[in-house]
Write a structure and sequence with these properties.
heterodimer, A: about 230 residues, alpha/beta, Rossmann fold, six-stranded mixed β-sheet, four-stranded antiparallel β-sheet, 8 helices, globular, B: about 250 residues, mainly alpha, 2 domains, 9 helices, about 5% strand
Chain lengths: ~230, ~250
């Protein structure tokens, strides 16, 4: 579904991504780990078309994506959850925020409202429609942000540190939600336990390229292409 | 900081159509501002007072807001009666108090309070976002409406950011004084807020793009005029017309 080849990206002449390759196939659940500043978020922004790589090719859903118009086509199918929920939630009420994506996709208002309530139900946020977004708690904000992304019915989900600032209970809920979904996703996290519970492949960025992270794997099933969940 | 402190409530004033409220408030304020007679200005004051009483909002908080406005009005009282030429009513030592000056100050006080009360009664009793929605239904240019909308949404976030920065300054025992260090620190504070807001706006725009934003906001709520809306529309129009004639 996503194929990156030889991606290079630099900040102030320092290459954070230097010849990076990545293949994401249907059903993959990839955890991206690694120190701060190693380029994890940059990589996700490149996949979403928010940043343009200096060199290399981005192929998503079987087509090369270069221009803004290329990415516009696919943004509904790639859901991106931002690090800070305040960046994601900008509408006054939960209803309007969750409906924002579906409406942009050209769904009529009545259908958008139906999508909102079923998405909220699936995240156990039933009845949140009229809540004011900036008055939600941190955990609620994160889950509502997730709802805004899921409401677009994406095929691939990209989550940038979904557990940062969440309490244990909400983290547990998030783990359950991800485990139960049949989505393909890439998630960035520093929370080892969370990554191990929710992904079937863990990678880290080392010297600008992706390497399989095997430090955490124990037992005979460890190894590339041989993951059980 | 609570901009919407009067917006919670279930009175008929709260339930009025925000479009009618905006137009009624504009029209009425305009007529009040044009008026130049103390009697009509006093009569006009009755309209917002009745609405505020009907809305059942905290009178104490209303006075608190009026106090802010009247601080400015106080300056007029300090200067106008002494400087405006006219009949001398009495003298205070070397200063003469003029009748026209007193009347003028009173007129301004009445008018400004009436307009602020009207804004509280009509605009304050609607949520900011219903006003934003109403504006976008009223052929106000999209860009202006969006500007208003984002300002309000992110005032809270920037306010929180400001508090975080101030706390960060305090825990390192910053004490403001009249010196270069204080000025420099405050300049950094403002600069930091500016940079952070700028960064945030970039991230918000990216988040919106990721959700398929193409420069258009869709509106989910549509308004329908009720009987009470027509009542407000007609009564404010008649009242405004009367004030215009009487003056």
């Amino acid at each position: 579904m996503i194929r990156l080849r030889n991606i290079r990206f630099s900040y102030n002449s320092r290459f954070v991504l230097n010849g990076l390759d990545l293949d994401v196939d249907r059903g993959d659940r990839i955890g991206l780990v690694g120190p701060n500043g190693s380029g994890k978020t940059t990589l996700c922004h490149i996949i979403m078309g928010l940043l343009a790589p200096v060199a290399g090719s981005v192929e998503i859903f079987g087509k090369k994506r270069v221009t803004e118009a290329d990415f516009k086509e696919i943004r509904g199918k790639l859901g991106f959850l931002f690090q800070d929920a305040d960046d994601q939630l900008f509408c006054p009420t939960v209803l309007e925020d969750v409906a924002f994506g579906p409406l942009n996709m050209g769904k009529p208002p009545e259908e958008a409202k139906r999508i909102v309530s079923s998405t909220l139900d699936s995240l156990k946020l039933t009845g949140f429609e009229d809540r004011i977004t900036y008055q939600l708690s941190g955990g609620e904000k994160r889950l509502v942000s997730l709802a805004t992304v899921l409401a677009m019915e994406p095929e691939v989900l990209i989550l940038d540190e979904p557990t940062s600032g969440l309490d244990e209970q909400t983290t547990e809920r998030l783990i359950e939600i991800l485990k139960q979904s049949d989505l393909t996703y890439i998630l960035i996290s520093h929370d080892r336990e969370f990554v191990q519970q929710t992904t079937n492949r863990i990678m880290r960025i080392k010297d600008g390229i992706l390497v399989e992270d095997d430090t955490e794997r124990t037992g005979p099933t460890a190894g590339i292409g041989n993951f059980t969940h | 900081m609570d901009i919407e402190e009067f917006a919670l409530g279930s009175s008929f004033v709260h339930a009025l159509d925000p479009r009618v409220k905006i137009i009624a408030a504009l029209l009425f304020s305009l007529v009040v501002a044009l008026n130049s007679h103390i009697t009509t200005a006093s009569i006009a004051l009755v309209f917002p007072v009745v609405l505020i009483l009907a809305a059942g909002i905290s009178i104490k908080r209303v006075f608190f807001r009026l106090a802010v406005v009247n601080t400015f009005v106080l300056f007029l009282w300090a200067f106008l009666p002494f400087t405006y030429p006219g009949e001398v009513v009495f003298t205070l030592g070397p200063f003469a108090v003029h009748k026209q000056g007193l009347e003028y100050a009173l007129l301004i006080t009445l008018k400004s309070n009436t307009i602020v009360l009207t804004a509280i009664a009509l605009l304050g009793t609607s949520k900011v976002f219903s006003l934003v929605h109403a504006l976008s239904h009223m052929w106000v240019p999209d860009k202006l409406v969006h500007l208003f909308f984002f300002c309000f949404r992110y005032i809270h976030v920037i306010h929180e950011e400001y508090h975080r920065l101030v706390t960060a300054m305090k825990i390192r025992s910053f004490k403001p004084g009249t010196n270069m260090h204080t000025y420099k620190t405050y300049a950094y504070l403002v600069g930091m807020l500016l940079v952070r807001s700028f960064d945030r706006s970039g991230r918000i725009f990216a988040a919106m793009k990721c959700r398929g934003f193409r420069g258009k906001f869709y509106i989910l709520h549509h308004y329908e005029m009720k009987r009470s809306d027509y009542l407000l529309a007609v009564s404010s129009a008649v009242l405004s017309a009367m004030l215009l004639v009487v003056r």
